[in-house]
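ok trying this again, last paste got cut off
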Amino acid sequence: MSIRDWPAAERPREKLLARGAAALSDAELLAIFLRTGVAGCSAVDLARQLLGEFGSLRALLEADLARFSRHLGLGPAKFAQLQAVLEMGRRHLAERLQRDSALESPRAVRDYLKAQLRHEPHELFAGLFLDSQHRVLAFEVLFRGTVDGASVYPRQLLCRALAHNAAALILAHNHPSGNAEPSLADRQLTVRLKELLGQIDVRVLDHFIVGEGEPLSMAEQGWL
């Protein structure tokens, strides 16, 4: 049966307009993106099939072009559309974060860092540079590593803080393993960076570790 033949309240697009995007399942959201199915398979059925093949919506969203295009109903054009949608989402989060003080928008900070770092297959170490009112000046990936770690050079971090004329800084890095629990080395490095940056009057407000779930805040854990 075609989606057009479904009751209006069950059609993904009409359901979204009536109840909001949060009311839709992963398959229904993906069906709206796909727009059409294939012969003998509605867009929702195709979406369910794709989610089963990839294992999750996140795995589909993070697939590279080669893996994405191997699946029925997908190809370079859909991949380009998807990348545009994801980038619009990241830019929306960045603008949302820039409107207010980072300390007054902890949810916006977490959402932004997840969007920037969680999908990366290798460890990245980044900084969110802030002015004296804790408004965002810039976000930079400072060091890139492997699946196991990234080397951090304090002198370079200090130079970037000075270049941005930052008054404060939020550190962040991802754990590709998905486990956001910091290692002893992570905690020791954070203390060292806080002390070094303090010598040039730049406050380290937090250090987030981005894993599978919600980013872990070292400040909230009392480790700063």
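PB: full thing came through this time. The domain at 100-217 is CATH 3.40.140.10 (Cytidine Deaminase; domain 2).
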